[in-house]
Design brief:
Layout (H helix, E strand, L loop, with lengths): L9 E4 L4 E3 L7 E7 L6 H14 L3 H4 L2 E7 L7 H11 L4 E4 L2 H11 L6 E2 L7 E2 L5 E5 L5 E6 L4 H14 L2
Parallel strand pairs: 3-4, 4-5
Antiparallel strand pairs: 1-2, 1-5, 3-8, 6-7, 8-9
Helix pairs in contact: 1-5
Length: 167
């Protein structure tokens, strides 16, 4: 997988406000794609990332904005995203938008997601997707990424290295 070098997106946060990659000036963005109806992979990733962020020194943790970008804008409205994240992952800001906006964000990060039937889901479908976590520097460039097999200590170490290298 080749990684993007310049990150751009235009979405809506879980409060209904328009946001883009420049909405958090001077801040590192920790970006995870997923969907709120995911039963296993997304909750595991969000828990792992929350643990990694808890492990950071307070001065470093304050420089990181964790974002959870929906690949399922049909179900993941701002209200759904807000309720989901505030209940279990309050550090994260949820991002969603129109299907076109979400597709553009997915293209930027080279994220694959496709709706498939899932009889166990109440809505009858799931959204399997690329499961990487991306770290975007304050200038909007991809700094690094981690696969879904990365554990919290590995991510915390990578975050610490990146943030300490750039005060």
């Amino acid at each position: 997988m080749s990684a993007p070098t310049d990150v751009a997106f235009s979405l809506v946060d879980h409060h209904g406000s328009p946001v883009d990659a420049g909405s958090w000036p001077g801040t590192w963005l920790l970006v995870q794609f997923g969907f709120t109806s995911c039963r296993v992979v997304c909750p595991r990733a969000l828990t792992m990332l929350s643990t990694a962020l808890d492990a950071l020194a307070p001065d470093l943790a304050g420089r990181v904005q964790p974002l959870y970008v929906s690949v399922d804008p049909e179900r993941d409205t701002p209200d759904v995203m807000r309720a989901f994240l505030e209940a279990s992952y309050p550090r994260f800001t949820g991002l969603t938008g129109t299907p076109e906006q979400v597709e553009a964000a997915k293209r930027t990060f080279r994220v694959f997601a496709r709706r498939r039937p899932d009889p166990e889901d109440p809505d009858g479908y799931a959204m399997p997707h690329t499961a990487f976590t991306y770290l975007v520097d304050p200038d909007g460039r991809l700094e690094r990424h981690w696969p879904d097999t990365a554990d919290a200590p590995t991510v915390a170490t990578g975050l610490t290295e990146a943030l300490r290298a750039r005060p």
